[in-house]
Design goal:
- Helix 4 packs across helix 5 and helix 11 packs antiparallel against helix 12.
- By secondary structure, the protein is an alpha/beta fold.
- The protein has one domain: Alpha-Beta Barrel (TIM Barrel).
- The strands form 2 sheets. The protein has an 8-stranded parallel barrel with strand order 1-2-3-6-7-8-9-10, surrounded by 6 helices. Strands 4-5 form a two-stranded antiparallel ribbon.
């Protein structure tokens, strides 16, 4: 792992990071691209908001890295694609990574790459595919000094949950999959919040010093989002990876500023909401 690259991900004031994920179009689900149809404009807007990093795919990374100057968010590169989010599921489900993803990350000057560790009830082959991808990426990431972010994702059964992209936040399940990600060689963990936020220290503990960044999931109201952010940081998280709660917000720059104030300046939720209200976009 290259600490030099991680120094561009984590903010020097706080040692924490806000990574805005805009890799949703990769997964081929129509609803996922709502609000991010024009990626050039989305990335330009995020660069102005200036989070610590933006998470993009191989095909979209150019919109960030072609912007001149050094004062812009770092790139986190998504490496794998799966079709596990539909309802009903396709008759054949899969998870694949780009075989040349690490070399592309070097060429694109990414600070880290992200890969899923998927658990989908009744489909052990998807977990196996994730593990095989992680093993292949770990080998090349070590060779080139690219930090590997593993995203343990405990899914609910699609049929029982009534739709795709439903996660299971049961603490034992999240803890177990996070631990497997650590055992597989994660340099960073991107994990869901537990249903009981006060349990999140158990996730941090089982990660054993590997930085944990918390996923944002579906859209929630501003106070809920900011309160949850403050809570997981209090439990020991090293940052957050939020997507739709930023890019689909009516004020992307405002919510970014509010989140950054909590992450890097220790603001409370009310102060962060005030920051949001004061921002025009």
């Amino acid at each position: 792992m290259s600490l030099y690259r991680l120094n561009r991900l984590f903010n020097p004031r706080s040692g924490r990071a806000l990574d805005v994920a805009v890799d949703h179009g990769f997964f081929g689900e129509p609803s996922f691209i709502t609000g991010i149809e024009d990626m050039r404009a989305v990335v330009a807007s995020l660069v102005r908001a200036n989070p610590d990093a933006i998470q993009l795919t191989l095909g979209q990374a150019r919109h960030l890295q072609s912007i001149p100057g050094k004062d812009k968010p770092a790139l986190v590169l998504r490496t794998d694609v799966a079709n596990i989010y539909g309802n009903p599921l396709d008759s054949h489900i899969f998870s694949h990574h780009f075989p040349h993803a690490i070399e592309e990350a070097v060429r694109l000057d990414a600070v880290a790459v992200c890969v899923n560790l998927l658990h989908l009830p009744g489909h052990p082959e998807i977990r196996e595919a994730s593990i095989l991808s992680i093993m292949a990426l770990r080998k090349e990431a070590t060779r080139y000094g690219i930090p590997l972010m593993i995203e343990p994702l405990v899914m609910q059964d699609n049929a029982a949950a009534g739709g795709g992209y439903m996660v299971d936040g049961a603490t034992p399940k999240v803890v177990t999959l996070v631990r497997q990600a650590v055992e597989l060689g994660a340099d960073l963990i991107k994990a869901d919040p537990t249903d009981v936020i006060e349990d999140y220290h158990k996730v941090i503990e089982v990660a054993g010093g590997v930085p944990v960044l918390v996923r944002g999931g579906g859209r929630v109201d501003d106070r809920t989002l900011l309160s949850r952010t403050a809570a997981v940081l209090e439990q020991g998280a090293s940052g957050i990876v939020y997507g739709r709660n930023v890019v689909q917000h009516e004020k992307p720059a405002g919510i970014t500023a509010a989140l950054m104030s909590i992450l890097h300046d220790g603001a409370n939720v009310d102060d962060a909401l005030a920051t949001l209200e004061e921002t025009h976009s």
